[in-house]
Amino acid sequence: MTCIIEIISIGNELLIGQIINTNAQWIAKYISSLGGIVRRINTVRDSVDEISSILRDTLKRNPTFIITTGGLGPTFDDKTLKAIAVALNSLLELNEEALAMVKARYCNYKKNITKIIELTPARLKMATLPRGATPLHNPKGTAPGVIIHIDSSTIIALPGVPEEMKAIFEESVLPMISDSIGNLFVHGRYLKVTGIVESEIAPLIDATMHDNPDVYIKSHPKLRSHLELHFTATSKSKKETENTVEKSIKNISQLIYEHGGTIEEF
Amino acid sequence: MTCIIEIISIGNELLIGQIINTNAQWIAKYISSLGGIVRRINTVRDSVDEISSILRDTLKRNPTFIITTGGLGPTFDDKTLKAIAVALNSLLELNEEALAMVKARYCNYKKNITKIIELTPARLKMATLPRGATPLHNPKGTAPGVIIHIDSSTIIALPGVPEEMKAIFEESVLPMISDSIGNLFVHGRYLKVTGIVESEIAPLIDATMHDNPDVYIKSHPKLRSHLELHFTATSKSKKETENTVEKSIKNISQLIYEHGGTIEEF
């Protein structure tokens, strides 16, 4: 079974262009390198209606995993857990395991900060999860990640702070996704092509992909000086994956030379 | 009327994390600085089904503008125009105005490249638009942008190459969006806050936003060493917008000092 992932990035700061969505790119690159398929990346603002609405729409497409980032913290605009509960017609309840994680983190801080830190409502919020959810240990911050299984999909909610998101992903999410993907090999290569414009290379790509149906070739024009061609193939055999890419590169190279272009590998 | 914009970014290269979505951030920042609201940023792969499906879903939400980037070029995986036609139950047809733009661009190239360039199917594709669409001059490349009005929404399709996307946006899209937004002023300020953690500042933000309903305050924890607070307000009066932000900064500053935090502006 193909492992299909959709990413939902949550946060007004992304929609006003204040920050760039490095989290989504990081996750997408990681998953693709393992042979998983990221089908969509959606960005919505800090609104229970928006987040729950997009979660419902996403669940209808039955992805294997839905990964959300952002909105797990203590402030008023951290609304992801509430929105998951709304999307699933579920309730929020204090989760003892999550509470222990939040407490442990504040005990840690206390050693450095010296003043007394209480479990205020803002802090309890991070341990109040949708019913049926399990917290994921956050090695770098306070808000635990959250995982919840819904029919054939699994929702994984991660914080928006990149170092916390990455730490939870690598510790708890990666093993689950790797298991779901199984042993797949992904092989990719780039060629730099000069002396031929994109509209001339288009039919050559068509012909090569027709003759090599297991490879995907994408062209990227670079400031009109040259083109980059990106070749990828995924299969259960390392050798087969590499052969598919090499054969298609050989095929298209010949066609490019015939059309007066030149090739550099990089 | 509020000007609501949704962005649809198209391209497998975004979903495999090969490149980061700088186009969406650039557009979102530009529109937000004018007082427009970017409600969603969605990224889908080069698939007619995926693009037409998300276009249909987006149209149901009636945004003022839907801006797509990517998929207007000559290669097999440039599928945006076909997908727009499918989403609107419309036909694709050769557009004479777009054809003139594509021809003019190749005449330009010809001066430099010396060999004869013909209007191949791959090139004609860039001038084959959904019925009722109008091409937008591309000052930096071959594929014209495309605009089409559907009920109360306007779809604007831009190329994915950043320099082409930006050139068409500034020449043709910006005037339309500015007109739709009207004269709005946006004022934003940042504060750097130390000595107080995010969960302690959360209730202070709540109180300040309660007393200053026209301001939006967002906190961003920065590697646990400090917090950034971002204040924004939008209104028809420059003076009023600035006053709203200044008053809320004064309010929260007092609360932060009372809680032992310190503030730096930047």
Primary descriptors:
alpha/beta, Molybdenum Cofactor Biosythetic Enzyme, Chain A, 12 strands, homodimer, 9 helices, 2 domains, 43% helix, 266 residues, 6-stranded mixed β-sheet, Alpha-Beta Plaits
Shape of chain A: elongated
Alpha-carbon Rg of chain A, integer: 23 Å
- SS strand fraction of chain A: 25-35%
Kindly report the average pLDDT value of chain A.
91
Greatest contact pair? A-B, 71 and 71 residues
Q: What's the CATH C level of the largest domain in chain A?
A: Alpha Beta
Could you estimate the helical fraction of the residues of chain A in percent?
Answer: 40-55%
Largest sheet of chain A: 6 strands, mixed
Count of the domains of chain A = 2
Multimeric organization: homodimer
* Spatial strand arrangement across the major sheet of chain A: 2-1-3-8-7-6
Low-pLDDT windows of residues of chain A? none
The number of distinct β-strands of chain A equals: 12
Classify the secondary structure makeup of chain A into a structural class: alpha/beta
Can you describe this structure?
2 copies of one chain form a homodimer. The model of chain A has no long low-confidence stretch (mean pLDDT 91). Chain A has helices at residues 12-15, 22-34, 48-60, 80-87, 96-113, 121-124, 162-181, 198-211, 238-258, and strands at 4-10, 37-44, 65-69, 92-94, 128-130, 134-136, 145-150, 153-158, 185-194, 216-222, 226-235, 262-265. Chain A has 2 domains: 4-181, Molybdenum Cofactor Biosythetic Enzyme, Chain A, CATH 3.40.980.10; 185-265, Alpha-Beta Plaits, CATH 3.30.70. In chain A, α2 packs parallel to α7 and α3 (48-60) packs across α4. A 6-stranded mixed β-sheet of chain A has the order 2-1-3-8-7-6, sandwiched between helices. In chain A, strands 10-11-9-12 form a 4-stranded antiparallel β-sheet, with helices on both faces. In chain A, strands 4-5 form a two-stranded antiparallel ribbon. Chain A has 266 residues and is of the alpha/beta class. Chains A and B meet through α1, α2, β2, α3 and α6 of A and α1, α2, β2, α3 and α6 of B.
